User: What shape does this take?
Amino acid sequence: MRVAVLSDVHANLVALDAVLAAVGTVDAVWHLGDVVGYGPDPDGVVDRLAAIGAVGVSGNHDLAALGGREIDWFNPDAKAAMEWTRGRINDVSRAWLSALPTTHREGDLTLVHGSPRDPVWEYITSVPVARANLAALETPFGLHGHTHLPMAWADRDGRIDPISPGPGSTFKLDGRPVLLNPGSVGQPRDGDPSASWLEVDTDAGLATWRRASYDIEAVRTAMLEAGLPGRLADRLRAGL
Ligand code: ZN
Assistant: This one.
């Protein structure tokens, strides 16, 4: 089965559509949360993911959009964008986001936004945190987002290898535990402004990181016209 794994789309429909065009025909699309927040088109992104039958989990921004207290932890720009999002999303989006679990399993893979042991909030950014979460995994492999950084944390017989993959990098799923982060579709933070995602071939046991360029200026303009914070619009250009 060939699967496209998307995370942190963040209401960026232009980036999502560029990714879906590059993905082509797949057997499934899985998402790892933060569908909304930051970007200018939350309903459009939910509508597109619902239309293609994407399955996935909720992130901290999705829960905040539904009125959750997660917003209390947001920085001022994120909070301003979330207040805009809350006032904007329609009932259909609200219902779709409400139905998302925080953890979802697909065969050998566990899908979460943050981490297996703290699926909404924890950032996996260090070897000790990765080690604890590899131990907490109840399936051989884990998929997570939240950091907006393409990454793999591989257990090599007790040693944890952090791997920063470039576009086209592959990782062989050989049965040993690993946590894979596809990077972010809608707000990459690894210095490459193009949209990032992960292609997984479950039969071949192969994961491949991919990038797609999109019309960043169109999204910037839409954000500024919507009254979203300028710093959030500008960071799309730098991919930081
Ligand atoms: Zn995010």
In short: The radius of gyration is 16 Å. The first strand starts at residue 2 and ends at 6. The domain at 2-238 is CATH 3.60.21.10 (Purple Acid Phosphatase; chain A, domain 2). The mean pLDDT is 97.
